[in-house]
């Protein structure tokens, strides 16, 4: 958070607004964990993962359908907006809606993702965070690409900005032969990842796993990094450059032979979980976008994107960089 100057935004009173909504298209959200309780609007949340819905109906009938069996969505949501009982998010007042498009195994269908985008756009989301992705050849897939593009165009027409992860394959996204879902879709903010590789080093080192691409990457955000460096944590030596959150209370470790789910041990709500990737960089950018909406108003996704880009800090001295795009996001400059 200090790397993106979020602490300076907070000091200036820029904490976000409950009147701004960010949709989290992911594995769901542990909506009543200590950092997120009261920030998630369940009345506008929805699941598009039938297999998870069946698990909920049979084994967790008191839980909302967006309950998170994977942990990833909860981690992502808390980077955007958090009450900071355990971990701070970019904002502390932004309203979240959970749009479950990925299941307990972390995967989902393109149709479910597109349904989730439409749902978010139709239910008042100012920003949608998509910490997910895939890729496929453009040749022979014109119909699918056309459907994706129409969906993203519709979201823009409804006033919703979509922020997407660049992906974690250390690949160049610039070649046109591949459609990179969803950085190749129109109107999106495509986010690469940065992170420190030593405990006291620069937070703006390009992440070893992050995809890149000239003209494709819009901005960079903190996603964690690694160079074999470890740090001492209460549980022992581990990679220090992770993005942390509270662990979802319904995180699953697997299933018994009869199909009964096995909880991973996070039921108390006090355990933490770390992730690393462009999927963690993306919600940092979505949180900054939510701060921008407070300033410029609803229904202006192109303007929000422009402010997000022009207020970023160029890392290599240019705003046309294949790794950092316009630069690493700066919450204080964007929000003031």
| Number of contiguous helices | 8
- Give the helix/strand class: alpha/beta
CATH superfamily: Peptidase S8/S53 domain
Order of helices and strands: HEEHHEHEEHEEEEEEEEEEHHH
Query: pLDDT average, as an integer?
Result: 95
Radius of gyration from the CA trace?
A: 18 Å
| Model regions low in confidence, pLDDT < 50 over at least 5 residues | none
Number of domains: 1
| CATH topology type | Rossmann fold
Q: Indicate the percent of residues in helices.
A: 25-40%
Major beta sheet summary: 7 strands, parallel
- Quaternary structure: single chain
The first-level CATH class name = Alpha Beta
The outline comes out as globular
- Strand content of the residues, in percent? 15-25%
β-strand number: 15
Q: Could you say what the CATH architecture is?
A: 3-Layer(aba) Sandwich
Strand order of the main beta sheet, please? 2-3-1-4-6-8-9
Distance between the termini: 16 Å
């Amino acid at each position: 958070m200090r790397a993106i100057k979020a602490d300076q935004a907070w000091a200036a009173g820029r904490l976000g607004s409950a009147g701004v909504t960010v949709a989290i298209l992911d594995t769901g959200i542990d909506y009543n964990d200590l950092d997120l309780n009261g920030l998630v609007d369940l009345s506008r949340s929805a699941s598009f993962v039938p297999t998870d819905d069946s698990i909920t109906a049979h084994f967790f009938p008191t839980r909302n359908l967006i309950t998170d069996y994977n942990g990833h969505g909860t981690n992502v949501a808390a980077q955007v907006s958090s009450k900071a009982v355990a971990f701070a998010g970019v904002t502390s007042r932004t309203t979240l809606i959970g749009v479950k498009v990925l299941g307990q195994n972390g995967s989902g269908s393109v149709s479910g993702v597109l349904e989730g985008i439409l749902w978010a756009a139709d239910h008042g989301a100012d920003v949608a965070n998509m910490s997910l992705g895939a890729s496929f050849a453009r040749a022979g897939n014109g119909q699918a690409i056309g459907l994706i593009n129409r969906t993203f165009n519709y979201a823009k027409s409804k006033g919703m900005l979509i922020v997407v992860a660049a992906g974690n394959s250390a690949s160049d996204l610039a070649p046109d032969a591949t459609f990179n879902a969803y950085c190749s879709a129109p109107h999106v903010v495509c986010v690469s990842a940065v992170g420190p590789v030593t405990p006291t080093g620069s937070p703006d080192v390009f992440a070893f796993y992050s995809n890149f691409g000239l003209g494709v990457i819009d901005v960079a955000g903190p996603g964690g990094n690694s160079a074999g460096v470890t740090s001492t944590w209460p549980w022992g030596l581990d990679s220090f450059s992770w993005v942390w959150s509270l662990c979802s209370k319904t995180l699953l470790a697997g299933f018994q032979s009869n199909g009964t789910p096995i909880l991973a041990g996070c039921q108390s709500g006090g355990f933490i979980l770390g992730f690393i990737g462009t999927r963690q960089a993306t919600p940092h950018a979505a949180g900054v976008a939510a701060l921008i909406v407070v300033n410029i108003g609803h229904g202006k996704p192109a303007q929000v994107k422009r402010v997000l880009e022009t207020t970023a800090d160029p890392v290599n001295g240019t705003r046309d960089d294949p790794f950092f795009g316009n630069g690493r996001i700066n919450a204080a400059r964007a929000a003031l």
